[in-house]
Each structure stands twice: as C-alpha cells, then as structure tokens.
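#data-curation
PF: Archiving a pair of folding outputs for the training set. Convention for this channel: one message per protein, sequence first, structure tokens after, nothing in between. First:
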Amino acid sequence: MSQIKISDADFERFRDYFYRKTGIYFGDSKRYFVDKRLIERIKATGHRNFRSYFTFMRFQASGKEFQELVNLMTVNETYFFREEYQLKCMVESVLPEIVQRKKKELIRIWSIPCSTGEEPYSIAIYLLEYWPLIDEVDVEIVASDIDTKVLEKSKQGIYNSRSVQYLPREILRKYFKQLSGGRYLIDQDLREAIDFRQINICDFEDTKKMRDFDLIFCRNLLIYFDDVSRRKAAEAFYDSLNPGGIIFLGHSESMSRITSLFKVRKFPQAIVYQKPLTTWR
C-alpha cells in the first residue's frame, strides 16, 4: 500500500475530471498537493491503486467519495476582518447607494466561498457595528461553499486565536465567548442569522437557486479557475445580482479581465464591479 504512485496519465485524468465537476484547475505546480491527497483517499478507502479508486469514486451513486475529495482539495484558510477595506467600502459607499435605490427594502448579501465562516460573520459584525441603518433595513446573509466540512464548522462557529487575531478587543469581547484551549465561540444570534448552503458555482442547477442578491463577496476563488470557468462563474454572478448589484473580488483578482458584463466602480475604499442598472439579459 505504501508504494501507491500517481502516474502522469493518472494525474491528468483526475485533473480533467475534477475540473469538469468543479471548475477548479490544478496546474502542474499543484502536482505534489494533488498526489498527496489522492494517495491519502486511495489508502483510506482500501483501494490498491489509482485506477481502482478512480473507478469507484466516479461511479459511486451517492457521490460521497467525490465530496470527500472536494473537501480535501479545496483550500480553506481565512480570518476575521480579512481585507477590511472592502467591508468599510460596503458600509460607507455601497450600501448608501443601494438603500437609496431600494427605498429600505430587504438587502441580500451572498458570501462565496464562505470557507469556515469568517467572512459572512465579519460582514454581519461590520453591519452591526458600523452601519447606521442596520436597525431600519432588513439584511439577509447567505453563505455558501462547495466543501461540506467547512460548512459544518461555520455553523458550529468555533475559532482558534489565529482566526480572530485582527479583531479589535472590544469586538472580540462583544461577539465571542472564550473557550478552553485558546478557542472562541461566536455569538449564537450570529450563528442563527447566517443561512449556510452548499453551492457549486460551476453547477447551473445550484446557481439558478441563487437570485436577487444586492452584494456578492467572492474573494480569492476565481484565482483557482481557468479562463473558461471564470467566465461561467462571472455569468452566474451576473444572473444572481439585481440590476445595480455589486461584487467584491479579492485584491489580486479583476472582473475586467474575465468579462465585460460588469462596470468597474472606484470608491475611496476599494474597486468593485457593478451589474448595470439597465441590463440586456
């Protein structure tokens, strides 16, 4: 069992399959990362080689093993108040525009990928602490990820000291309960306020359920996609947003290099991408 090897052909076969299912493309530089996790699952499921395991995984009716692989292959490292300048942009520049347009109707925010929950909880805390209209306007936050294990962790709301290291002390005291072992449990009201769902952004059946959003936070996801998958994701976000809706990307990402569907908006705090108020789709 210790001699299990992933050949070049095996790697390419798995890479193509995983890409078709998730839109995530592993370049050759990720070979060690992919091989290590594939061998881990081959051993854990009692198979003797890649071919046997790959056949089992592909044709398993429940899809459970494929989901195990997705959970292993996706990177889920984040922390509270990451790229805080975008949260400031949300409350100081973007939301005032949206409220003026929607006349204080419900505002819907989508966080994808939400990983272990730091981003959607950060959005909720930022609204509570820094948005003066939070008591006058209803806000719904939907958080999604392709990884079922991180969704469970999100719902549990327990974090280590690294995840909360950039939170102001007063915020930490106000919204978290300190547990043993340097862990922190986020407030129950916040845990119940976020709607966590499993969504594969490259699955049309998944994304067509996600409609009527005003804001989307999709930070540091598209960097794992190739050009084709990025365009599909951009079109899915376009369909999910209301006219005038805004999408925040990671600091190294740009929608302008993917599609012309969105208008670039430069606010004092951040650059964002807006679905035009008059749409053609």
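PF: Second:
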Amino acid sequence: MEPLVKTEREQVVESTLDDNEESVSSGQLPAHIAERLAAVEQKLAELEERLPEDRVSVVVFSGDLDRVLAAFIIASGAAALGQQVSMFFTFWGLNALRRKKVTEGKELFEKLMALMSPANTHELPLSQMNFFGIGAKMLRAMMKRKQINSLEEMIALARQLGVRLVACEMSRDVMGIKDEELIEGLDIGGVATFLGDALKSRVTLFV
C-alpha cells in the first residue's frame, strides 16, 4: 500500500518529470539537457579549431647547399600537391636568401660576419666534402649534367607555387643583415609567425 504523504525527494522527481514532459511536448529541450548540449558543441568547436590544415612548415636553419636544396625540393613538392607551404629561414639558413654582401654602416662584428658569410646562393658550401668550394661546384655540375634544377631555379619555382619565405627577424638583427642583402619579396617574422604556421600544419620539418 502506497504512503499517503510523498517524501520531498519524490516530489522533486515528479516535478522534474512534469517539467521535462512539458518541454518535450512544446518542442523545447529541458534546460539541463540544453546546457549540456551547448557545452558539447562548444567543445567540438574548440577541437575543430585545433585540427591541422593542409599545410607544411619547414625551418631552414642550415646554410649548406645540399640541405637547402633538400628543403626547397620538399617545399616545392608539397606545394605542387596542394599544400600551403611556409619556409622559416633562421641563422645560417638566411644565407640561402642573400643576394649580396653589405659592410657599410655596420659594426665591426657585423662586418666580419658579412665578410665570412656567403654573398649569395652560388657561394653556399656543402655540408660534407666541400673541399674549399670544389665539392659544391662538382655537385652543381653533376646536377646540370643530369638536368636537375639548380638551387636558384628551385627557389624561383617555389615562389611561383606560392611557397611563403619568411626571414627570421631576430636572426637578421643579431647577424646585422640589412634588407638590401636579401632577395626581394620576403616576409619578415619571428617565432610567433613560425608557430602560427606550424600549429596548423600536418607536417613540420627542421632542416
């Protein structure tokens, strides 16, 4: 036999069920379900923002001819496959973007750094077997004989494919590299610029 007087808990449960029935019958979700659904949708939106895009980011730290060649081959290949590609040149990698030496208006160490660095891509050494520049000239001759694009042609191709070239602002300032020493049409950026691209990329490489 059911008790004549309902407990407080039973009354709350009945009231909640009645509210839910009224909400469902009127086509509205109960408030607590609507709140949880909104929280799930917000979480999904946050996860979607973190999903990688069709991007490839390459850090070019080396100024060696063979390594810079590899970086541009990968970058051009990825761009040809429809990826958005950005290349971030820092420290010795900036030598791959040089077009001439400038010593005027520089401090002593900056002048020495300019004099000891390659003036342009034709002066980049090999990482191994350079032999005072003979190895680099041999490699270029072998590439030409086998009809492989030179580094300068690869840079031009990468730019035609829309590859973004970014010169590291901090490295440029530390090494005293002036704007006129670098090829034209570069973006200048710092670590935030690189991370902004890398966090959206499916692939990130360090060369």
